[in-house]
Specification:
alpha/beta, Rossmann fold, five-stranded parallel β-sheet, 6 helices, 5 strands, about 45% helix
């Protein structure tokens, strides 16, 4: 049914829950797992100051590229340890939802897995929401995992 599954992560606890669900599903189905993370490039001297000023759920955006790669490698290692093969990782500069959607389309994935965080309340209207954007623009099926 699903042969290629995309999941996004920012390293947060809620994103890790979505990754675990995607990993379990990929293992059960023998599907390829694609783990995606997005980042914004920020000069190293500004990282500590700018990161501290952002709301906690947006701090992932000021991680240097190397930190994102390390986080993706850790998620890949956990998926491989759980019995998933193959597992691919993608780090993309820019918006998280766009990164997930782009990889899903480029890789012709059958399913995108995202956490539900951010789908409810007034915040989604002010800041936008990765699961909301992904669910409305996905080129394939979307599984929204309850992570909160």
């Amino acid at each position: 049914m699903f042969s290629s599954i995309v999941v996004g992560t920012d390293g947060s606890d809620t994103a890790s829950t979505a990754v675990r669900h995607a990993t379990d599903l990929a293992r059960r189905l023998g599907a390829r797992l694609l783990i995606v993370s997005a980042y914004e490039a920020v000069a190293r001297p500004g990282l500590r100051t700018e990161g501290a000023e952002l709301p906690k759920d947006l701090q992932w955006m000021v991680n240097p590229h190397g930190d994102v790669l390390a986080m993706l490698e850790e998620a890949r290692g956990e998926a491989v340890s759980a019995g998933v093969d193959p597992v691919e990782t993608y780090a993309r500069q820019g918006d998280a939802a766009d990164a997930i959607l782009d990889i899903a389309e480029e890789q012709r994935s059958d399913l995108i897995v995202v956490g539900n965080r951010g789908l409810t309340g007034a915040k989604r209207f002010l800041l936008g929401s990765v699961p909301n954007k992904v669910s409305h623009h996905a080129p394939c099926s979307v599984l929204i995992v309850r992570t909160t």
